[in-house]
Design goal:
By secondary structure, the chain is mostly helical. The protein is built from nine helices and no strands. The protein starts with 13 loop residues before the first helix and ends in an 8-residue tail after the last helix.
Length: 141
Amino acid sequence: MSTEQDQPAPILDAQEVQEAARQCTWACTEPGNWLRADGSDDVLAAALSAVREHEREGYVQRLEVFAEQHRARLEELLQRYGPGSRPASHGRYMLVGQPESLIVCERMESAPFLLRSRWGLEYVLLDDLEFAWGPRIRTSR
């Protein structure tokens, strides 16, 4: 007799999640405003590594709901810290200019300590986005 625990956790399709993030964020700004940085795939991998097994099924829909619930906040984030903003002109807040930032923000709200523990990239990127997003729990110093 098989139980739920015996079944493998669903695998996240990184391209599907990334495409959903692009669609959600493009609803908040013009696609031409998004940056495609060399490290976008690394950011995506770091953010998705913080999606727990029990959250994988239906994660794309969860991300879409998150984007809709936080639409005004995302728009403000893009306006204040995104491409073309004064802080961005100083070379900071690079993640705000990438669609993957939506996934990182969702993880900041859902699993902030797991995200930080699995980040594996320059912490200044995460710290900047955390400051700009203003999550309910801050994990940076």
